[in-house]
Design brief:
The protein is mainly alpha-helical and 503 residues long. The protein has a domain of 259 residues. Helix content is 80%, strand content 0%. The chain is built from 19 helices and no strands. It is elongated and about 80 Å long. It starts with 13 loop residues before the first helix and ends with a helix. About 1% of the residues have low confidence.
Length: 503
């Protein structure tokens, strides 16, 4: 008589117990992964909320807990929220080309941008903050300090709400446009059209048109120079050994000149001529240091365009860092300019023309921009770097350097230009130049083959070979047209509401 074997799932079998435990652990692990996946979208908003609360607490500690300080605490919270939005939107334009061309990983791009954004805001952000806070609305037109406080508070709230709404809708708006329009709109609501410094606003508005065009032209000229002197010569590596160190020296000299005139002015008053001498010395030093590095990197490379892309990776990273510094110097005003005006009025009890910028106010803007970049920036960085036009390290270098030079010049003059449109203008400049250059070479090839002009490049083929997405042109122009009046109307409504609540 044969004995029946035990069933494989007998309860007293140790292996069965371990298998059941493993299944239970797997279920728990899957549950934890699901919970983590569900809660992950809440991490970034949660950290952003913590920063906003900390900014309010810092302002309370500095100003003190009193009835008059409540408006400063509220303005600090809204300013922190504004800075987060700026970091999420505008900084993507600085690092997008570098990431899109594969010269930088996302992690390194975030780290470099955060460091240089903070340095630019802290070292060189004062001139533009003064323009935003006191240059658009004439203090003499709004003599009542309480009314001026509500004006600046309304501008902060309206600009932050508009940028957040536009971001949710996927509209590429300018934070600078939003703040300037909000300040002007609240000023009109507070004291009529005479309250707005229309001459200053006109100069700022003119820079919105000229800065993208200038950035596009500068980027196109740099690309044309690279094509003529490096890409389309017989010995490409020899040309790169000569000119890449020069380009690095130009960037280093430009950065040093700007830092000497803007950043060091708070410590040591530098004459413009002395700043130029400093920039020339740093540029020559950068060129001398880059020469052996480029020579070593080019050793063993093939005489091909693909090799040139590797040589332009370092200049591209340097230019992206330069643009982040310029962005921090320029766009910190959008976050804390109205806040600085509110702090000054609360402390002095009067509306003054000269606004002193406290260090803690600039710090809120600098940290908020960097934090917004880290929490919300990667998606937009990929969008800017890949969807407007195709970029490689050489083209991305031209975009970054052209935009950086334009923004630095504007910040030097105290004009809050839109870094969004400046960077997009540089991208369009590179893309449109490539279209023109490609069409010109195709026509020249057709003529050499004896083809008629229309036969070499028929209209349908020309449309198919567009290298820039035309839809972005329409989107940017629409954003320029809508943002200023929309933020102005919203700020006027917020101001009237705040004044009504205050009685």
């Amino acid at each position: 008589m044969t004995q029946c074997p035990l069933p494989p799932s007998a309860p007293d079998d140790p292996m069965t117990r371990w298998k059941a435990l493993d299944k239970d652990l797997d279920r728990i692990g899957a549950l934890e992964e699901g919970a983590l996946f569900v809660s992950r979208p809440l991490v970034a908003p949660g950290l952003a909320l913590v920063f906003i609360v900390l900014a309010a607490l810092v302002s309370a500690l500095v100003i003190g807990f009193s009835h008059s300080a409540l408006i400063v605490i509220a303005a600090a919270a809204v300013g922190a929220y504004m800075a987060l939005n700026i970091g999420a939107n505008d900084v993507a334009n600085n690092m997008g080309p570098a990431v899109g061309s594969n010269a930088l990983s996302m992690g390194w791009a975030l780290a470099i941008a955060a460091v240089f954004e903070t340095l630019g805001a802290v070292l060189a952000g004062g001139e533009v903050v003064a323009t935003i806070s006191a240059g658009i609305v004439a203090p003499g037109a709004v003599a009542d300090p309480q009314v001026f406080i509500w004006l600046m508070m309304a501008a902060l709230i309206a600009a932050a709400v508009w940028i957040n709404l536009a971001t949710l809708l996927g509209a590429p708006v300018s934070t600078t446009h939003s703040v300037v329009g909000a300040v002007a709109g609240a000023g009109v609501a507070a004291a009529g059209f005479a309250a707005v410094n229309w001459a200053q606003l006109g100069a700022i508005a003119a820079s919105w048109i000229t800065s993208p065009a200038l950035a596009g032209m500068v980027a196109a000229l740099i690309l044309a120079f690279i094509k003529a002197r490096i890409m389309y010569v017989e010995d490409k590596l020899a040309a790169a050994r000569l000119w890449v160190p020069v380009l690095i020296g130009v960037m280093a000299g430009t950065f040093a000149t700007y830092l000497a005139m803007m950043g060091l002015s708070r410590i040591w008053a530098v004459h413009p001529l002395a700043a130029l001498v400093i920039g020339l010395g740093v540029g020559l030093t950068g060129w001398a240091v880059a020469q052996p590095l480029v020579q070593r990197q080019a050793a063993g490379m093939e005489n091909r365009r693909r090799s040139l892309r590797r040589l332009f990776a370092a200049p591209l990273i340097l230019s992206a860092a330069l643009l982040s510094f310029a962005h921090g110097a320029n766009d910190v005003a959008n976050a804390v300019g109205p806040l600085a005006a509110i702090v000054q009025i609360v402390r002095s009890g009067d509306v003054v023309a000269a606004v002193l910028i406290p260090a803690w106010v600039t710090g809120i803007g600098a940290i908020g921009i960097s934090l917004g970049l880290i929490l919300f920036g990667p998606k937009l960085i990929r969008l800017v770097g890949t969807e407007i036009t195709r970029l490689n390290p050489m083209r991305a270098y031209c975009v970054a350097l052209g935009a950086a030079l334009t923004v630095i010049l504007a910040s030097w003059m105290g004009l809050p230009v839109s870094t969004t449109h400046t960077a997009v203008g540089a991208v369009f400049g590179v893309g449109f130049y490539r279209e023109w250059h490609t069409a010109r070479r195709r026509r020249a090839l057709g003529r050499s083959l004896g083809q008629a002009p229309g036969e070499a490049d028929p209209p349908e083929e020309h449309r198919r070979r567009k290298l820039v997405r035309r839809s972005h042109v329409v989107t940017v122009v629409a954003a320029w047209v809508v943002t200023v009046p929309a933020s102005g109307v919203l700020a006027a409504a917020v101001f009237l509401a705040l004044r009504g609540l205050a009685g």
